[in-house]
Design brief:
8-stranded mixed sheet; 20 helices; mainly beta; 10-stranded antiparallel sheet; 36% strand
């Protein structure tokens, strides 16, 4: 008994939260967790010096994050000395496994690991100190999905104690809470995986109990070998069967006195709880039950056997008539009923010869009231519905291991002491008892005879593996009516009397008696009828006592591994390593922050650009682009000038100083961009006219002004610049959109793409910050920008997986080159205009930002009267309309409607004078053909008769139509009484959260089904997500856990009590957008008069969407309808990426995110508090994902897009989130993919390679020309304009001479020169290798010299005949040849003159000199290393 009592008191469990206990039972899952070692310094050196004999151990507890509730039992490792901390890095090795199983499979069920240090402080006092804790996630994000990875994992540790998790500020996700502080360089190495071998031992280990593999479990054999882990592969002790006979209870002083006092105390408890009972006779004893089960010190190893006890004098009557005598508080004439008898035999096959195995007896009384709870006799509820059960006594017997038979007398126990079922028990006799007789006696005794059987239970014949899993599954629900009980259970209860009002299955279930935590003073929940098994089933699933029901058959639903069938092992995924060259966000476009010089401003002002004037025709105030902007939303909202005229002036385009001087400069350009939600803009071609006096100015001064080109190709240099105007006023903006437009100007960067007007090739892109356009109460503002036009070149993907750190907060991209092509000069202005107020009927207030929608005001049905009250003393008259004018379907069936309506509609719809004149002629012709007057009168009579017949038929059709549509029309009008309308203003990717206050209008409860007709509208089912949106929006409405009943793919359901109002959370989020791709060809140029007559803007009306939510009761009747009108709002685009890719292939790109919290000098690999990254795409056919290589590593977004046929383009948006619920985007990218025909060329640097492309003519004759993005390296023949015949086939000869080795992309466009249209486009993929270098030279030059250096090298003709050679170099900007070609006789030597251009910076450069023959083949290559000092 001592060993059992020790194990029982040391393994007391804290149950899970009651909300978890009320959930439906699930199958328990077994886990094995191995805590391997602890890395890092735990305490500061000052604390270590104060302690002696410093030791450390770990503690593990289960924690429910949702309800902030610890449960189970805390497990601790063995104490380890800290002398291992002296090693570098410091490490404490534990390597201890622990095991557990649980049915609460939810992502918020975690294991909290605490690091505890122990040491002797001065004064010989042992103290413990919490060094930190970690949160070990057991289950994945999806419920019921345990972590299956068996590989080692690293657990990050946090400062503090796990008791901090109980603080209300620590909401889920806890790891990302700002109050959690990581311990630097400290972590715990562990493994966690499911452990199926533990499943057969579930009956020996209670749920949620953490046990060590080194702990001896009663009922298990010691392990084999030296491992000491008995739970890795459990082996079971052989069970024995015990029989109990002649069992009876003795209660003192008598059974009548005991039950009389018990009833009086229960009645007084009910009076204190407010339950009205007429007299003590209304509460009576229904049954006396006995629960017998086996306990191993940790928990019950089997579901208890439940039998009924009867008084000894009533035993014969019970057996003959099966009637139990009612013993009430008023029956005082009974005598001698002092013994409760069980004459049947009890068979216990679960006993094991172990000192911790005991048999537990629990005496339980079942009470019932024959009338209703209020004492009335009119209640139709059965007796079993009002039954309540209370445990009054219990006893424990630990049989001797050597005994085989005998007689036992045990004392009964009760009161507040801890018992195996962990329930409140009726008190034991004390000095305060009301009866004098009870004060002097004991608590009672139990007597029985026992015998040991030699047979072996069938369930253990096949070992512990036989039938364990199936028995555990069947034990979840009690025996249903008509289901045969197991033979052993039938043998235990077939001789026992069955109490009235309780079925056999209820006796087997004994739900209330098994529920942990039940109070003898708390009335139980009413049960259903005896035939209903729902109540007992749910309560039985909560019990900690049940473990299994034995079955001999094999469970065919097991996986193949459980049945012994070999299965394929899953491959372990290696750590992710990116294979694509990442593109760094923010490296594509940049804006020069320096303002224009005074000389440049004077040059632009003297060029004749039109001046921008405000509404009063005064010059506009000029602001500097480098000055900070002080933005006040209140000033913008209260501005009296509600109209904003946005002006964009394209002034000049200059060539960058670092651009290759040999590259051709475009003659004409055009621009593409999109401002706000206006259509994508493509400007006409603008001529680049060189300024004559640019030679005296600096390189930053504008060199070419922009001049519009007329339709005939001419241009007027006297009117330079191109101007665009966008009018944003209340007539353009939707209600409430002004706030969005102000935010757009404050936060958005407008990206402008610059294109070559002749070749239609992209020159580069520039980004403009528009925050300076905020007027802030001023009448008008303008700002002039000088923007760098940056071209980005992407090389082919290589196997490089890392980049160079280029500075603080930035990473140099791999295989991505950015070149500044030029500088764009433009002026932006915002001119305010006063707008006329709208008419009263059309005035629109800003939209309501309320997040709670109520259906209380939906009942607005005013009846069917046409005259509705419109105010005092006046009425609003509604004019009736003809049915044929309202319904087009009815109008098509009528004969006279079209003829009668022609006269009324002809004036409006057929007002054409020619048509009316033809009708008049036709009438005259018919009158002439009708002849004399008698004939015409006869014709008129026939016509009138036909008209009457047609009218009669039409009336019949109208009557039939009204009868058919009457029911639908009435239903439509009545449905408006329960319909609520609401308008949402949504942007791309942003979740719009709101709550609908649904009220049950009836006096009966309903289970409401919620039906949605839009995939973009969803119900917030997760309580954590609901809490997150409430905190983000500042809502203080009530929040409920497990609010909805989910049924797989069916619509969720909600239970509503009569007249109850529940707040239902909804979320609207859209990822779809319409096509936004601008055309690659320039627009046609409008005349100057057309430009001045009206603004060049068009409203791009974003389509309005509609969604409907239906709330249906069980009968299918609607109780509420929510109609949503979604007004899409423009969104901010943070970055635009434009890719050119071969057609009909997959584009795979990695885009690197900017660092979140990059600290100066932070070591690589240091874990930081980085938020999770989630990616969504507007195109469902695009695969995008964000993968984190490791803590402290850069994060990349990977795209996989299928390109279409050439020259198709595809545009989509990539939306990035930093929160787990995808609420608000942190970045929005626009990706443009252009599909081109691919041509692969393998060549040698400096050597000419020729190929031919096939041109196919279109339907008409065209004058075309080929353009290359790298004309110095790729040339075409014919080089100029040539004719492409219709439907003809022609070759285009291409010559490629690359200057550098490597993989590159070269674009080749074939353009119609008359209409400036793109006819064909190719993507030439160069795979260039380095030539063999035959000689190497080295020279030294002084850096910064104005003069260069002249050098000479010799070349000998190795051939016997005269040859012509051509000279080329990879650096024409640093090396010039005296002669580009030369002739030399056979065997002679020629001296080549070289001119080295001076360099302004120090360093070294390697210059290649290619000597090619007359066909362009490389003969020799020299390398000259130039040292600039």
């Amino acid at each position: 008994m001592d060993e059992w009592h020790k194990a029982f008191t040391q393994n007391t469990l804290v149950p899970p939260h009651p909300q978890r206990a009320r959930q439906l039972g699930k199958e328990s899952i077994a886990f094995q967790c191995v805590l391997k070692w602890l890395d890092g310094p735990l305490l500061k050196q000052g604390i270590l010096d104060m302690w002696s004999e410093f030791e450390c151990h770990l503690r593990v507890s289960l924690f429910d994050v949702t309800y902030r509730h610890f449960f189970g039992r805390t497990w601790r490792t063995t104490v380890k000395p800290t002398n291992q901390l002296s090693r570098q890095p410091p490490r404490i090795v534990f390597s201890e496994p622990f095991y557990f199983h649980t049915t609460v499979s939810h992502p918020n069920i975690v294991a909290v690991v605490e690091v505890v240090a122990e040491g002797w402080k001065r004064g010989d006092t042992l103290q413990s100190l919490s060094c930190g804790f970690g949160i070990l996630r057991i289950f994945g994000n999806k419920p019921e999905s345990p972590t299956s990875a068996a590989q080692d994992k690293r657990l990050r540790l946090y400062h503090g104690t796990p008791r901090a998790l109980l603080h209300p500020l620590l909401q889920d996700p806890i790891e990302q809470n700002k109050h959690m502080t990581l311990m630097e360089n400290c972590s715990l190495q562990y493994t966690l995986k499911p452990h199926p071998p533990l499943e057969p031992a579930f009956h020996l280990i209670p749920e949620n109990l953490l046990v060590s593999g080194l702990q001896q479990i009663p009922g298990l054999l010691p392990p084999h070998g030296d491992t000491g882990d008995a739970l890795r592969k459990p082996r079971f002790q052989k069970p024995t069967t015990w029989h109990l006979d002649d069992l009876f209870f003795t209660l003192y002083p008598s059974l009548e006195k005991f039950e009389e006092e018990l009833l009086e105390l229960l009645i007084s408890d009910r009076f204190r709880e407010g339950v009205s009972l007429v007299d003590s006779g209304t509460l009576e004893v229904l049954e006396r039950r006995l629960h017998v089960c086996v306990h191993n010190g940790l928990g019950f190893v089997h579901r208890p056997q439940v039998v009924v006890l009867v008084p000894e004098t009533d035993l014969a009557l019970t057996r003959t008539a099966s009637i139990s005598r009612r013993v009430s508080a008023s029956s005082k004439n009974s005598s001698g009923n002092q013994v409760l008898v069980l004459r049947s035999r009890l068979r216990l096959p679960e006993m094991v010869s172990h000192a911790a195995f005991t048999i537990v007896f629990q005496l339980e009384y079942v009470f019932s009231s024959p009338s209703g709870v209020d004492g009335s006799a009119g209640s139709t509820t059965s007796l079993s519905n009002l039954a309540c059960m209370h445990m009054v006594r219990w006893a424990v017997w630990n049989p001797e291991l050597e005994a085989a038979s005998g007689k036992v007398t045990l004392p009964l126990q009760g009161g507040v002491q801890l018992n195996p079922s962990r329930r409140l028990v009726y008190k034991v006799p004390s000095a305060s008892m009301s009866s004098e007789e009870v004060k002097q006696v004991e608590s009672g005794t139990i007597q029985f005879q026992f015998s040991l059987s030699s047979d072996t239970p069938t369930e253990y014949a096949g070992g512990p593996k036989a039938g364990r899993r199936s028995s555990r599954k069947a034990a979840v629900s009690p025996l249903a009516p008509g289901t045969p009980a197991p033979a052993q259970d039938l043998a235990a209860i077939q001789d026992s009397p069955v109490g009235p009002g309780l079925s056999l299955s209820q006796l087997a279930a004994s739900s209330q008696s098994l529920a942990p935590g039940s109070s003898s003073k708390t009335p139980p929940q009413p049960q259903d009828s005896p035939q209903s098994q729902e109540g007992p089933q749910i309560q039985t699933q909560e019990s900690v006592l049940e473990s299994r029901v034995s079955h001999l058959e094999v469970d065919l639903s097991q996986p193949a591994s459980a049945l012994g069938t070999p299965t394929a092992e899953h491959l372990q995924e290696l750590p992710f390593t990116p294979l694509h060259a990442p593109i760094v966000v923010g490296a594509r476009t940049r804006s020069s922050r320096s303002q224009l010089s005074r000389a440049a401003m004077a040059l632009l002002q003297s060029s004749g650009f039109p001046e921008i004037l405000d509404a009063r025709q005064q010059p506009v105030e000029v602001v500097s682009p480098v000055e900070p902007v002080r933005f006040s939303p209140q000033k913008e909202e209260s501005d009296c000038l509600q109209g904003n005229e946005m002006v964009l002036q394209f002034l000049a385009f200059s060539r960058a100083a670092q651009d290759c001087p040999g590259a051709p400069w475009p003659q004409a350009v055009y621009f593409t961009f999109q401002f706000y939600r206006f259509p994508p803009e493509t400007t006409p071609r603008l001529q680049l006219v060189k300024l004559g006096e640019t030679g005296t100015n600096s390189s930053s001064s504008p060199s070419h002004i922009l001049v519009p080109i007329n339709k005939d190709g001419s241009f007027d240099a006297g009117s330079p610049g191109f101007q665009l105007r966008y009018m944003v006023d209340p007539t353009f903006l939707k209600p409430g959109e002004r706030h969005w437009f102000t935010h757009y100007l404050a936060a958005q960067t407008l990206q402008v793409d610059v294109w070559d007007g002749d070749s239609l090739l992209l020159i580069g892109s520039a980004g403009i910050r528009m925050k300076h356009l905020l007027r802030q109460g001023r009448p008008a503002v303008q700002v002039s920008h000088e923007l760098e036009v940056v071209a980005t070149e992407y090389e082919q993907d290589t196997m490089v997986a890392s980049g160079d750190v280029a500075g603080f907060g930035s990473v140099k991209p791999i295989a991505v080159h950015t070149v500044v092509k030029g500088r764009l000069h433009l002026t932006l202005a915002n001119v305010g205009h006063a707008c006329e107020p709208r008419a009263r009927g059309s005035s629109s207030l800003p939209p309501s930002r309320s997040r709670v929608i109520s259906n209380d005001g939906a009942s607005l049905f005013s009846g069917g009267s046409l005259l509705t009250p419109g105010g005092p003393g006046r009425k609003r008259v509604v004019q009736a309309q003809k049915l044929a004018d309202v319904d087009s379907e009815l109008a098509a069936m009528l004969l006279t409607h079209t003829r009668a309506g022609q006269g009324a509609q002809a004036a409006g719809q057929e007002a054409d004078a020619v048509h009316r004149r033809k009708l008049a002629r036709m009438r005259l012709v018919r009158l002439q053909e009708s002849g004399g007057e008698p004939d015409s009168r006869r014709i008129n009579l026939l016509a009138q008769h036909n008209v009457r017949a047609q009218h009669s038929r039409d009336m019949q059709v109208i009557d039939a139509y009204r009868e058919r549509t009457k029911a639908d029309s009435i239903s439509s009008v009545l449905s408006q009484a329960i319909t609520t309308h609401h308008t949402l203003y949504a942007t791309l990717g942003t979740a719009e959260f709101f709550e609908f206050a649904l009220k049950n209008p009836h006096n009966t409860q309903h289970t409401v089904t919620i039906e949605l007709d839009s995939p973009e509208l969803s119900i917030v089912l997760d309580s954590q997500e609901w809490r997150y949106f409430k905190e983000a929006t500042g809502l203080h409405t009530p929040l409920e856990e497990d609010m909805f009943h989910l049924r797989g793919s069916l619509a969720p359901q909600l239970y509503l009590r009569p007249r109850e109002t529940a707040h239902i959370p909804f979320k609207y989020q859209s990822f779809s957008m319409g096509p936004l791709a601008p055309t690659q060809a320039p627009a046609e140029m409008s005349s100057e008069k057309d430009t001045e007559s009206g603004p060049l803007w068009k409203c791009s009306a974003m389509p309005t969407k509609h969604a409907k939510v239906l709330f249906r009761a069980e009968s299918g009747r609607l109780i509420a309808v929510l109609c949503l009108t979604v007004e899409p709002q423009p969104h901010v685009v943070d970055q635009v990426f434009r890719f050119y890719h071969p057609e009909l292939t997959f584009l795979k790109k990695a885009i690197r995110l900017p660092p979140w919290h990059t600290l100066p000098g932070a070591p690589v690999g240091m874990p930081g508090e980085e938020p999770p990254v989630h990616v969504r795409c507007s195109d469902p056919n695009v695969i995008c994902e964000a993968q984190n290589v490791g803590p402290g590593e850069p994060r990349d977004v990977f795209l996989k897009v299928a390109s279409g046929p050439s020259p198709e383009s595809k545009d989509f948006f990539v939306i990035i989130y930093a929160d787990r619920w995808l609420a608000v985007p942190v970045q929005t990218w626009q990706v443009c993919l252009h599909s081109l025909q691919r041509v692969d060329v393998s060549c040698v640097a400096g050597q000419l390679t020729r190929l031919s492309l096939v041109l196919r003519g279109t339907q008409t004759l065209r004058k075309v020309r080929a353009f290359s993005s790298h004309p110095q390296e790729l040339k075409t023949d014919p080089a100029g304009v040539f004719v492409l015949p219709p439907h003809g086939v022609q070759d285009l000869h291409v010559s490629v001479r690359p200057r550098k080795a490597g993989n590159r992309f070269v674009h080749l466009n074939l353009v119609d020169m008359d209409y400036h249209q793109l006819v064909a486009s190719w993507l030439v993929c160069l795979s260039c290798r380095q030539p063999l270098i035959s000689k190497a030279f080295e020279i030294t030059m002084a850096a910064g010299e104005e003069k260069g250096a002249n050098k000479r090298i010799t070349y000998t003709n190795p051939y016997p005949s005269r040859r012509t050679y051509h000279l080329h170099t990879d650096r024409p900007d640093l090396l010039h040849f005296k002669e580009d070609s030369f002739q030399v006789a056979g065997g002679e030597t020629y001296t080549i003159g070289l001119r080295f251009v001076p360099s302004g910076s120090t360093g070294q450069e390697e210059i290649l000199i290619h000597i090619n023959d007359h066909e362009g083949k490389n003969e020799e290559t020299f390398c000259v290393k130039v040292l600039y000092q």
